[in-house]
Design a protein that fits this description.
27% of the residues lie in helices and 25% in strands. By secondary structure, it is of the alpha+beta class. The protein folds into two domains: 190 residues, no CATH class; 68 residues, no CATH class. The strands form two sheets. The chain has an eight-stranded antiparallel sheet with strand order 3-4-6-5-1-2-8-7, sandwiched between helices. Strands 9-10-11 form a three-stranded antiparallel sheet. A hairpin with an 8-residue loop joins strand 10 and strand 11. The relative contact order is 0.14.
């Protein structure tokens, strides 16, 4: 797991409804979270909207996967805290707790004084997530999230990101989500479905895989949303016949560039030409 910049998600009346685990610019946060979704039974309720993100596992199903603990004893160096850890594979959670404390979150978790500790720390990868809270409000939120996980009332998914951003894991208590937010989620899902359909229509990802070319991230976006791009003259729409463009983070970066590329650029990559290929002096 890797640490992430996070935020508590609040409703309009100020009541916390969940937490965004955030992201950092690292490989652990570039992959999808399908293993977590599968382990929590997400994706079977609907094709779009909030219910498509709802967890369906019971407390019994989560035994060995979910660790939750309150540490209420207060000493001169340690304040009360709450920890919530989930992993796709069944764990000896006592060992997982120790490893998470001593390695993955060494800096934020082992801050020397209470004043150095953040109210909430988060870490995640495609295989699991962990949260540690020392603030009173944040500790109560972890209690609520734990109860919601055991009751199948968590909406889990990767939040939206801008073209140059990453997508954070969101853990939201479903019964607390307002109707207008649900409507917004459905609208976003339908838009993403349109984008995914446009990507499939290009066939470019299949052609790249067939050519043996790989990537760490290949994020599509509507090409019409851009007025200009660095390194190009005119509008990006002038360079392509397709409605989508991709931000590519390729493998073999000694020989390949990262950046925004049209479908035509990516087809040239297959033939060993074009702007993806890094020029040598």
């Amino acid at each position: 797991m890797r640490n992430a910049v996070h935020s508590v998600i609040r409703t309009e009346n100020g009541c916390p409804i969940g937490v965004s685990l955030g992201f950092d610019f690292c490989a652990e946060h570039e992959y999808d979270i399908e293993p977590i979704k599968s382990a929590l039974g997400v994706g079977n309720a609907a094709k779009a909207g909030a219910d498509a993100r709802r967890t369906t596992r019971t407390a019994q199903d989560l035994q060995g996967h979910l660790f939750f603990a309150d540490f209420t004893g207060k000493t001169k160096t340690m304040t009360p805290e709450t920890r919530l850890i989930f992993h796709c594979k069944p764990y000896d959670m006592e060992k997982a707790l120790l490893r998470t404390t001593m390695h993955h979150w060494a800096l934020p978790w082992l801050a020397r004084t209470p004043a150095d500790r953040k109210p909430l720390s988060a870490s995640w990868s495609k295989s699991g997530f962990a949260l540690r809270a020392v603030g009173n409000e944040e500790r109560q939120l972890l209690h609520d999230i734990h109860e919601a996980l055991n009751g199948g009332d968590i909406l889990l998914g990767l939040g939206g990101s801008k073209p140059f951003g990453r997508s954070p894991i969101n853990l939201v208590i479903g019964s607390r989500v307002p109707a207008d937010v649900r409507a917004s989620i459905l609208k976003d899902d339908l838009e993403q479905a349109k984008l995914a359909k446009a990507v499939r229509k290009t066939g470019i990802q299949k052609r790249l895989r067939n050519a043996g070319l790989g990537w760490y991230a290949m994020s599509p976006y509507w090409v019409g949303a851009f007025q200009s791009l660095a390194g190009r003259t005119g509008k990006p729409t002038d360079d392509t016949e397709h409605p989508v463009i991709f931000f590519l983070n390729p493998k073999d970066q000694v020989n390949n560039n990262h950046g925004w590329f049209t479908v035509e650029d990516l087809d040239k990559w297959i033939s060993g030409t074009g702007p993806v290929i890094r020029k040598t002096a």
